[in-house]
Amino acid sequence: MVDRYAVMGNPIAHSKSPQIHTLFARQTGHSLSYEAILVKPGGFAAAVADFLRAGGKGLNITVPFKEEAWKLATTRSARAERAGAVNTLVLDDTGRHYGDNTDGAGLVRDLRQNHAVTLAGKRLLLVGAGGAARGVIEPLLGEKPALLVIANRTADKAVQLARLFCELGHTEGCGLDALAGQGFDVIINATAASLSGEVPALPDSVVTTTSACYDMMYGNRPTAFMDWAGQRGAAHCMDGLGMLVEQAAESFYLWRKVRPDTGPVIAVLRQPG
Do residue 33 and residue 128 come from a single domain? Predict the structure, then answer.
């Protein structure tokens, strides 16, 4: 029987995960199936149980079920434990599921491997204090930046998040207006503002002519945040498609113990149409 994998979320029709993992399987010579499953609110635990009974071996989890997946996991990686969210489940027939969060590893790998962005010793700005931001803080601090500033429209949320991770590195939390006059080497937009064509209310000063600006969102054209950063002279503007593929590769490795080559898969997804 072919090993079954899937991504669960709501909405889910837009997901590129089935295409990504099908390409990984073809590249590595692994026989498996991967599907997208729409889960109704309140039905996550039952959906996982049904998938397991049908021979499921592993799951990716997307919004809005990452926190529920964290609770469902019997054991969790250290990075998932601190993130408070799980995006990858390794399923066990006995019900002892292992949970991990590969988002931060995917982001760091995309920045370093695919875009040659150095994080060590740099001034980093992370915009947003929701689940997407929380999931990447530990891996970012693992790169030993000089400073990681978490900035959010609601300053209190950013301050709390900075405190939660302060023993891992130099972190600060603040409101967006408190950034005036400060410049950063790397700016990461962890808000979903670009999905609606908007940009967080950042002061122009945060972008310098050497800044690398990264939007976790992606689309068929540069995002609103990328356009905004480029207009202010950023040296490098990137979207989150590479992060999506890299976090998927990390999940694939957890399930199959083989690390696929992400470059060709990113190239396929970049093709128009």
Answer: no
